[in-house]
Amino acid sequence: MYTAYSIADIRAAEAPLIALAEQHHTDGLMRKAAQAVATLATTLNPQTHTPILLLVGAGGNGGDALYAGTILLNHGYTHIHAYLSTPPTPTKPNAHPPALTAFTNAGGEIITELPHTEHYTLIIDGILGIGGTGNINPTIATYTHTARTHATILSIDIPSGIDPHTGITNTHHIHAHHTITFGAARPAHLINTHSGQLHIADISTHNQHLSTQLATYPTVGTHYTTTDTDFNPHQLGITGIIPTPTDHKYSSGVVGIVAGSTHYPGAAMLSVEAAIRATPAMVRYIGDCTHHVLARTPEAVAHPEIPDTTTPTHAWVAGPGGCTTSQLATLIERDQPLLCDAEALRAISTNPTLRDSIVQRNHPTIFTPHTGEFAALSHAYGTPALDDAGLTAIRTLAEKSGATIILKGRKTLIAQPDPTQPFITIDPGHSWGATPGSGDVLAGVLGAWIAHHKARNLPILNALQLGIHITNLATSISTRTPAGTAPTSATFINGAIREATAMLLHYEENNR
């Protein structure tokens, strides 16, 4: 779990570090960055005799790659080649001169043609850094896409050909297995999946040992990266679900779920079951699928219609598989958190009155669109399309709608309406959640945790992070079989929610 900062902020933060480092050594900070690259390279490619390819651009990113190659050569690597991707001109060199000199002096080889893709086991992408926004050479793009089936691709800062500001993928780009960046995540890391596993290196220290530079952070069952503090579910409030002697069925947060229809009874069943498994509190159900819901989860409390405000309820979920416009209008008027999913999002995207009402709400509203639903919402609100503006599109929709946006995908992204608050991305390290009904499960888990945090007077943002993390972890758990990993389904994900929650409740002892 990590936050990202604008490119301007990154450059401003690096400026004093660069000035300080230059007092001690030419390209001091670049050499520290290269040390971190080399550290990761030794982990990804521990065999010193296997060939490594550096794809080198003309700027600082290429300098990082060349200095990293120099470090590897000095640590016993024997076959490191550099391909200079930019043609030289009379006025501008095609590689950072001091880094190129250091590389060749250490025994590195400059090549002018790319050999067969199977020649290398590791390819380090140092073509474009955070200053590059366009396409890369199509020949290089094709080469790396072919090579990645048998070679590990490691990008420096951002995969070349990915816009670092918006995360938009250009036609000709690098698709990395791993990306290493420095100090903090860049905006594109939050949305673009071509970064692979993200590693954030601390370059503010003077430690030069290969084994101590990476600020990567493992969690239960997968890997996350942090730039601020280590992910700790206890700090997000997970221990609040452990009942105290004074707790009862209402006290840890009652969630109401309006879901399901004749065509989609399963969505109601899955979302209600997920909420029940997520916390010990009551779950209320309103919709056309009472028989199905109670048959699956008899502990749910069904209502023929949305109960009045005297009925204890702390938060609402509307839309998984069904929700009428009138039901949604009623919930918008409630002074409680409201999560809008699926059918509720469709209603919002087609009804300007609902949109106006949401903007006027003084209580948290959460939208959970996938990319198709996001497109409909952005069209309705008159905000930029995701494919055109990337992160800017998400931020603009959050600001204009007044809702927190949880954009679902391989990387789940949270954008709050307040533009001063950072984006948050949660990457599970797998894509097994790409299965029907997983969004209904997520809606139920989120709703239960939102209600819990509302009842406990805890930040709703913390509930969102916990709910996403638990669902991701449950999805990973649900793929396990005695014979190894296998496809999962929403039903199996629901079945793993309790185990995922237990792993996070006992997080500290599990990660000693």
From TrEMBL:
Residues of the YjeF N-terminal domain: 10-211
Cofactor binding mode and count: Binds 1 potassium ion per subunit.
CDD domains given in the database record: YXKO-related
Residues annotated as binding (6S)-NADPHX: 267, 321, 370, 440
Residue span(s) of domain YjeF C-terminal: 232-504
Alphabetized UniProt keyword annotations: ATP-binding, Isomerase, Lyase, Metal-binding, Multifunctional enzyme, NAD, NADP, Nucleotide-binding, Potassium
Keyword Oxidoreductase recorded: no
Stated name of the protein: ADP-dependent (S)-NAD(P)H-hydrate dehydratase
Taxonomic classification: Bacteria, Bacillati, Actinomycetota, Actinomycetes, Mycobacteriales
